[in-house]
Amino acid sequence: MRILFMGTPEFAVSSLKKLEEEHEILAVFTKIDKPNQRGKKIQYTPVKQYALEHHLEVLQPNSIRDIEVIQKIRDYHPDLIVVVAYGKILPKEILGIPKYGVINVHSSLLPKYRGAAPIHASIIHGEKESGVSIMYVVEELDAGPVLAQASVEILEEDNCASLHDKLQEMGANLLIETIRNMEKQQIQAIPQDEVKATFVKPFRKEDCKICWNQSAREIFNFVRGMDPFPGAFTIYQGKQFKIARVEEEKEGRLQGKAGEILSYVKGKGVLVATGSGNVIITKAKPENKKMLSGVDLINGNFLQEGEHFE
User: What is the pLDDT of residues 53-101, one digit of tens each?
Assistant: First the structure.
């Protein structure tokens, strides 16, 4: 097929790579370049970096809705447009251009977790499985008929990064399989059940703060769902304190107010009370410090017994 690809982050690179092996990539659309975290050097998107290395044409329009951009898409005469985490909503004028329509790879089992952060949400909400969905793009966000789905178990040791990597490869493989079935006309699009639809908004900074009134289990899921980005945090002695990993305490002998630092757990980390049960902080980053293990937190005397997180 003659395919236009639209994607931006690392999650989209595997799909582009797989597509290039079997199809003609007419051009690659990606979001505009931004400065790196230090705000100095301009950083290419992962998709742009891959495309340039493989001599693919790259387009980075400020607006995908511009008349000139839409006409350029028409001029390519694509059979199919594939969207993978592009970060822009396509107007209806584009949706009708390709012969086979516009399809999207979404990192959840739709209709659950439509929107911006489905991988985070699946872990934070304690789901036992996640997956990917290939669906037609319609005007409403992530609401199109589903062409294919594949699922994977969410393990206790998974965090956002590990689940992201699993779904990235799963999505790329399912995309190729779906396009093959489209070409053979051996596929059926199934409308989503709107009653079961849930939505995930982009995270604001305040959304990343740990609520110590939640249960130990909820905080365990929240921390790993936010790891490594954007990262869960709390406030200790007026300063931001990032927490990257916690364990649920099994015994639960000590009790305290939610957010209270109860004791040190030898060889592990720092025990903290929650709304129900306790957690052990095993990896964290005090403000202006490097990431530390729970043992290093104890040895460095970064947290004091009897103090409270805000």
Answer: 999 999 999 999 999 999 999 999 999 999 999 999 999 999 999 999 9
**Model pLDDT, residue 38:** 66
Same domain assignment for residues 166 and 231: no
- Model pLDDT, residue 34: 86
**Residue 255 is part of which domain span?**
205-299
**Residues 309, 272: contact at Cβ < 8 Å?**
yes
Instruction: Confirm whether residue 109 is marked as ligand binding.
Output: yes
Question: Is 130 among the annotated ligand-binding positions?
Answer: no
Is 80 annotated to bind a ligand? Reply is no
| 173, 248: one domain | no
Q: Is 109 in a helix, a strand, or coil?
A: coil
Mean pLDDT of the chain: 96
Q: Are residues 196 and 209 in the same domain?
A: no
Mean pLDDT on 13-33? 98
Spatial neighbors of 10 by CB under 8 A, at least 6 apart, are 46, 168
158 and 17 in a single domain? The answer is yes
194 and 290 share a domain?
no
Give percent helix, percent strand, percent coil of the chain, each to the nearest 5: 30, 30, 40
Place of tokens 């790891």: 227
Domain boundary among the residues 139, 170, 200 is at 200
| Number of structural domains the chain divides into | 2
Among 168, 186, 30, 7, which residue's Cα sits nearest to residue 103?
7
Do residue 78 and residue 213 come from a single domain? no
The CA distance from 97 to 75, in Å, is 10
Residue 96 φ then ψ, to 5°: -95, 0
Domain membership flag for residue 309: no
44: number of Cβ within 10 Å: 15
Tell whether 111 is in a known binding site: yes
